[in-house]
Amino acid sequence: MVLDQERLYPEKWLVRASTGERIACEVRIQIIAGVIESGTVLSENKLANDFDVSRSPVREALKLLASENLVRLERMGAVVHALTEKHITEMYDVRILIETFVFERLVSQNVNPLIKELSKIVQMMKVAIDYSDADEFAHQDLLFHETIIQGIDHAYISMIWKNLRPIMESLILLSMRQRFRANVEDFSRVIENHQLYIDAINQKDRQLMNQSLHHNFDDVQQTIDQLWRTQQTLNKGEVTND
Amino acid sequence: MVLDQERLYPEKWLVRASTGERIACEVRIQIIAGVIESGTVLSENKLANDFDVSRSPVREALKLLASENLVRLERMGAVVHALTEKHITEMYDVRILIETFVFERLVSQNVNPLIKELSKIVQMMKVAIDYSDADEFAHQDLLFHETIIQGIDHAYISMIWKNLRPIMESLILLSMRQRFRANVEDFSRVIENHQLYIDAINQKDRQLMNQSLHHNFDDVQQTIDQLWRTQQTLNKGEVTND
DNA sequence: GTATACTAACTTGTATACAAGTATACTTGA
DNA sequence: TCAAGTATACTTGTATACAAGTTAGTATAC
User: Fold this and answer.
1) How would CATH label the architecture of B11-82?
2) How far is the CA of B175 from the CAs of A151, B100, B168, B187, in angstroms?
3) Residues of B whose CB is below 8 A from A68
């Protein structure tokens, strides 16, 4: 069931997006938030109706979501595959894998411009905290890791990130929104950890990098767990199956 | 320019494919083979005409190719980005990355069923050599690595493979065809190397794994280089730009 | 009551139509 | 000859139409 009266994805992130991308973003975040339950069968016509568009952009959206493993395109509709904790762990496997790879490459190049860019982003994150802007914080957080990855010029590492990015985005977005409501105080820890990243890259210190990578992972993993529980509690009251 | 009178992609691999996938496969291999030159602008209408279909499946195909970084979708057409040697090196970076990851996981599980499956595939490869079936050999080669990767149950490692697979397929296919024409004798080395893979997994020997991984890489890299030179020489005589 | 066959309402895949925007080439003016 | 403006022929994005196939439900025959 698509709750189109209550959009979860920030409108302002969609300024340059096509109709298909908009739909993909909204359906994606609703799947990840658990609003659309696992096992739900989405049909092109139904989605087209819900979003008041034709099947063409819906089709595009479903293809996108399928490439992200969020739905499986079958003969009669797209079956929703919600993220499990196993999936999230696996996503972070990949993130650690590629960020470690990127770090190894960064070690043998001039990282000064990158460090400067990353510092800027951390400052932005601080401002986002000050103004309690969860969405902006999530955006900067994502941008931070993206900037590191783009720090080396590597087409296929970029490709992996490009595929991971949308899900990460929704995940971080939802998690940050909840965190801003629940426990704002531990954002200092997030900032600290990002600073640790920067230090690791700047000092080209493998151990420090590993440490901050896993730190970050544990941190997010914990939040995700919380998100999961909250979401599931919420949904029990909210979701009325067709 | 699309030479549709001379299809490079094996028809029999397309039995279950949609029109869009067919077009993607054919255009992909023509880009990788250098038949469609880098910088060429492909328009949906033109491709639809060439393949005698409507724009819908062509659109689907172009989206696919864009996700593989083979074309870049711009306002006025899809610009072809041929593979450079750098790209191919980077692809093998990723392959080594994920296959190493997979190996580490395999170490802590029962690999007997996998070993059996891999042995079967190597036998198939031998038969393919005996009957000089380059396409079948390429297919089995690809299947070999795919089987290893599917040996661990990991959604996002699978995702990476799914994204890499089409390009690898074309690359290996072209390279094997040429190799069958030029130097059939060194296929025994390829077989040997695959046997080495199996041994490494079976004995859970990290060093052996690393060795065979890089062996395989060097081997293919070398072939690719040859392919490149041949293809470029060929194209100089063949390609007549509109 | 049960099983089988048929109908009707869905599904996707592909083709076509239409709208909005862009680049190029030609025409017209000086 | 050169410049500027307009017209035309492209491009993509979205909507709609049509065809082929699947599923489910109902009605009918036994």
Assistant:
1) Orthogonal Bundle (1.10)
2) 32, 24, 10, 12
3) 159
